[in-house]
């Protein structure tokens, strides 16, 4: 993508897209590398990464990278992100609303008829700066069921068989996922 696509966008952001506009495994692994290089997890300071169970998040490449870089991925059950992913409630939803307001403001003040791909990064940055605070992220754990859920989460190291026919495990001794048992 041309560098101008990120003009006035969030500092340190990376811009990629797929042919159909949806995330895929390759883009997710690229994003993981970007994430890992910025967060810099270590054996003494690992990162817990909570995400939905979209098929793009589950691949041997993602697993290998996360294992190597001390990123512990936990996927949550389908249709539970509103209750278990605090950022969905306290950051992403307000961000979507703030971005919509930025779109309206841009169109009304510039006289343009449409927003181009070269405008999006700056509008996203403006919206993000309005709503993203550490306090909001932390409060998300208090306003959702996530607080109790994550406090009571217990991990067990049991190999799960792939739930998707699109995942083909070549090496039988490599586990992509560990079973998560809940005691709520």
UniProtKB/TrEMBL annotation:
InterPro entries reported for this sequence: CenT-Element_Derived, DDE_SF_endonuclease_dom, RNaseH_sf
Domain DDE-1: 10-128
Any one GO MF annotation of this record: DNA binding
Example of a GO cellular component annotation carried by this entry: nucleus
Full protein name: DDE-1 domain-containing protein
Originating species: Acanthoscelides obtectus (Bean weevil)
């Amino acid at each position: 993508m041309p560098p101008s696509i990120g003009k006035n966008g969030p500092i340190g952001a990376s811009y990629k897209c797929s042919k159909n506009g949806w995330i895929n495994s390759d883009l997710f692994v690229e994003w993981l590398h970007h994430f890992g290089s910025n967060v810099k997890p270590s054996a003494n300071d690992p990162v817990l990464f909570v995400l939905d169970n979209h098929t793009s998040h589950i691949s041997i490449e993602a697993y290998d990278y996360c294992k190597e870089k001390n990123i512990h991925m936990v996927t949550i059950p389908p249709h539970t992100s509103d209750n278990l992913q605090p950022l969905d409630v306290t950051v992403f939803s307000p961000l979507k609303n703030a971005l919509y307001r930025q779109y309206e403001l841009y169109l009304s003040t510039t006289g343009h008829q449409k927003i181009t791909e070269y405008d999006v990064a700056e509008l996203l940055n403006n919206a993000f700066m309005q709503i993203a605070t550490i306090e909001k992220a932390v409060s998300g754990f208090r306003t959702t069921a996530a607080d109790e859920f994550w406090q009571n989460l217990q991990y067990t190291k049991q190999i799960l068989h792939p739930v998707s026919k699109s995942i083909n495990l070549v090496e039988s001794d490599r586990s992509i996922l560990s079973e998560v048992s809940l005691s709520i």
